[in-house]
Amino acid sequence: MLKRLLVSLALYTVTLTVNATDIDKTQPYQMMKQVSEIAFNRLKSEQEAVHKNPDHLKIIVEEELMPYINEKYAALKLLGPNLKGAKREDVGTFINAFRAYLVSSYAQVLTQYTNQEIEFGPEPKIDANKKITGVKVDIIDSPRPNIKLEFKLRKDKKTGEWKAFDIIAEGVSLLSSKQSEWSTQLRQEGILSVAKELEELAARPIRFESKDK
Q1: Considering the domain boundaries, does residue 80 fall inside one?
Q2: What's the number of CA atoms in the CB half-sphere (13 Å) around residue 41?
Q3: How many domains, the chain?
Q4: φ, ψ dihedrals at 35, nearest 5°
Q5: Each residue's pLDDT tens digit, 145-182
Q6: Nearest to 203 by CA among 55, 10, 60, 14
Q7: pLDDT reading at 13 higher than 60
Q8: pTM of the predicted model as reported, rounded to 2 decimal places
Q9: C-beta of residue 36 within 8 angstroms of C-beta of residue 15
Q10: Which residues is 134 bridged to in the sheet?
Q11: In this structure, is residue 209 part of a structural domain?
Q12: Is residue 207 part of a domain?
């Protein structure tokens, strides 16, 4: 159940993107609604190209997802206490590797796209001093039970724009789960060791899994 939940929430993360100049990033709720609508339309229209070349999903992720993800903030939170004493260039290498990992992992998750529908919760109230907000969404995956998610976004104090950095499903933070997964390796082997592993994972080709499995 947890695996399906994480796969589904990652799928929805990818769909919350769009390459459009009229998306207002200062309005997080409306931004996510607009992005999801256009992204779903693109996924539907490019299914033939995707099945011919699954790596085409990486292009979709690059163009539609990454402009709305704060991978630097997420990577730094993931490193946590491992930032202490770390070299600046090593941290930069890790951030770049983490970004590449996100692109590849989200692209892989998109192979499971089957025209799921989404339903947004009420728009959250955001005061001028608030830097973190959440947008709640239900993924309609009938006949399975709906999946309840909350997307966490952070406001850039200079630009006033919001970007996503984490997803919470049934109280489980995706960022925190990855932090737990890599914490021992980060502590014992260092930032560059994990960065290398992320680069290797990112370089794997996208594949469709057999439905018979």
Answers
A1: yes
A2: 8
A3: 1
A4: -60, -45
A5: 887 888 899 999 999 999 999 888 878 888 888 889 99
A6: 55
A7: no
A8: 0.81
A9: yes
A10: 152
A11: no
A12: no
